[in-house]
Amino acid sequence: MPALKVSLVTNAKEETAAFTEGVFPSGCEVLFQTEDELRAGIADIDIMVPGHITVDGDLIRQGSKLKLIHAGTGYNNVDLDAANANGTYVAVTPNVAAQSVAELVFSSLAALKNQIRHWDNVLKNGGWKSSDFIGVPEFKGKTLGVVGYGNIGKCAGAIGRGFGMTVIAHDPYCKDTGDGTQLVDLDDLLVQADFITLHVLLTAETKGLISTKQFEMMKDTAFLANACRGPVVDEAALAVALKSGQIGGASIDVYEKEPLAADSELRNLDNAMLTPHIAYCSDEALLGRYAFFADNCQKIIDGEVPNMAVNADAVSKG
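and the corresponding structure tokens:
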């Protein structure tokens, strides 16, 4: 059997090659490709790891040999209907980045609430503080509201409790948190929480979940973190809420359109902490991610259904 061609879509080819050396099974020929290179050679690809590019119907239909598209935590960037019609599995990656994402959320919130960026710049420009009264709250004693209480949400909750926070959660699909965390309605969470972190999949239900109405419910001292999917938050409404002081601040790792536009208002706001979709990028999370990809490549070689294939039934029937 000829080696399966696996396309890892990346602009950091050398780094990705070095990081994944020896990870994929011997029955795979791993190609490190840009999006343009993938699109030009899709007819030869058996397995695609697309990262954050849009995997549209045209691309899938041109992949006559395409057996598996391996997404990350979500698959909203993949045309599932086209994959079903093409007989291509679409698999997601399970709980490998939960700790990484939760840690970035708290790192960003801590840096934002403690004004670390500002004071670092002050010191590096030869300055010092002029007062002790800088308006910095502690995590301890505050309420953390977690929207979406799956693997990542539970990690965020655990970190919050470690800081001495009261943790509440909203998740219509969770009936028992398993750790005693109180489940509340979304409106109640928005009203009560001092810090709010979002960990939901992007669906028709969650698109625009946080917009003008929701910002109006929040405390004017509240901090919001979004490290799930950009369109969950209405960015225009977020910019208004931040500029007007309707909320205290926001740490954002994902955006409605990526990369974030150069002229985005968010780039100019001191009470916004911005990172470029890196919450899943800890060394440990990436190692787990690629190991899971590799295991599913072996499943394809062995003629088995890949783990976490969201359309296994449709492909099997097709």
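(Above: one complete record from the training split.) The first helix runs from residue 13 to 19.
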